Amino acid sequence: MRTTVEGVQVDTRHWIDGRRVESVSTFTDVSPIDEQPLAEIAAGGTAEVDAAVTAAQEAFPRWAALDVAERSAILRRVADEIEARVEDLARVETRDNGSLLRSHRRGVMPRSAMNFRFFADYAEKLAHPDGEIRGHRERVTYDPAGVTAIITPWNAPLMLATWRIGPALAAGNTVVAKPPEWAPLTASLLADITTEAGLPPGVFNVVQGTGAQAGAPLTAHPGIRRLSFTGSVPTAGVIARAAAPNIVPLSFELGGKSPLVVFADADFDLAVSLAVEQFDNSGQVCLGAFRILVEDAIADRFLEAVLERAGTIVQGDPRDEATDISCLISRPHFEKVDGFVQRAKQDGARAVLGGSPNDELGHLYYRPTILVDARPGSEILTEEVFGPVLTVQTFADEDQAVRMANNTRFGLATTLVTGDRDRAERVSMRISAGTIWVNCFFVRDLGAPFGGNGRSGIGREGGTFSFDFYCDVKNTVFAPNGWTG
Fold first, then answer.
1. Which residue range forms the structural domain that includes residue 31?
2. Does 483 reside within a domain?
3. 118 and 195: one domain?
4. Which residue of the set 6, 181, 253, 384 is catalytic?
């Protein structure tokens, strides 16, 4: 089972124990660009999951025992191979998930390579200083945990997968990955790449399929020792219940309803640019600040400027360099986004930009949308839309801004725009979020902690935080005497 996507050959079978594996059944992968079928994908289930977990268990002792420098050298070769294939990966993923080709070329695919290289380097220098208590020496070590299940989303499939696969492998774990059924193709290419880089059979496995068929047996499998999931809150609840009997540590990166808080003393042009930037990837970004909160004193001028800037956004085929935003991922998701907008308008909100599908382009293209006058506490202000839909609200003072920013069950990120350094310090301390950007957006070192509060997730990953999760952290205490040799 192979297909050709944008001139690139992609195998659509599973990757288990270093070989391609077929399934009795398949599912159809559809490109969101034009809603045309791309390929028939092997649809895995319990049998394929069992085979993949068994292969990962058998490969684990040898991979875990490998000197960290040898493991890291292989992972750096994986990074090299990704960099060598950036163009292929970019073209395939653009066709598969509809994100901009220029973004994949310039940022997303290079970052996928960086994820492997960063954690390979970090593993070699990972250390905890010995401690001392009453003459006893304490040594903290990071032991590989075992088989890691990694379930990833469709909005940045390869990059978000490597963000977890990189540290899991660097820690000495083996991996079973389930890629998103709406955009599975680059996971298959990654399997080829890891093999070319010298990763031993069974260390990295890919089982494709739907959440119900492949995801459910994977999350409930007794052989899994770590589980990382990026996706929706409802699915996370299902996964947590499935993993609970096996007492499997979980890392969840879930939804967001993040605010962009603009104070009157802000750099006005910067604030406008940051607001319009939230339409990136057609709003299919968990970290996006889709609730725009702007101080009364500049609200009218700010909205006018945002509308003018947003009016220049070019929507179209993501393979065109001139395109700024493209399509939504699937017909069900498209209908979900439109449902949010139409219900908001019925509830009293006004669309001052967009507010409907892009009839000129058809298919899954939804117009960049800005809603005002939404009723406080309404669905559009509290639930994650995951589409190109911004709401604008106003506040009178700092205290109200903080209350509005925190008026959410989510807590993934917040963006503040202010010219007052003291205010930035005060407000950032009072807002509940895993990441806060002040006068910037989407800037983060891979060693920094990343994760969300509330319904935005469980745990933190990045740098040492990743190894705290993917490893069994051990404390060994040595007595000062009693030695016989």
1. 2-254+456-475
2. no
3. yes
4. 253
Q: Which residues touch 405 (CB under 8 Å, ≥6 apart)?
A: 259, 261, 293, 414, 431
Point out the catalytic residue in the list 6, 181, 286, 384.
286
Model-wide pTM > 0.90: yes
Give per-residue pLDDT as tens, 226-245: 999 999 999 999 999 999 99
CA-based angle 220:221:224, to the nearest 5?
Answer: 110
In a domain, 337, yes or no: yes
Regarding whether 205 and 324 lie in a shared domain, the answer is no
Same domain for 383 and 370: yes
pLDDT at 470: 98
Q: Which residue type does 4 have?
A: T
Number of folded domains in the chain? 2
Tell me, yes or no, whether 415 lies in a domain.
yes
DSSP code per residue over 301-342: HHHHHHHHHHTT--BS-TTSTT-SB---S-HHHHHHHHHHHH
- How many CA atoms lie within 13 Å of 436's alpha carbon, on the beta-carbon side? 19
CATH number at residue 214: 3.40.605.10
Q: What is the pLDDT of residues 428-466, one digit of tens each?
A: 999 999 999 999 999 999 999 999 999 999 999 999 999
Is 286 marked active-site?
yes
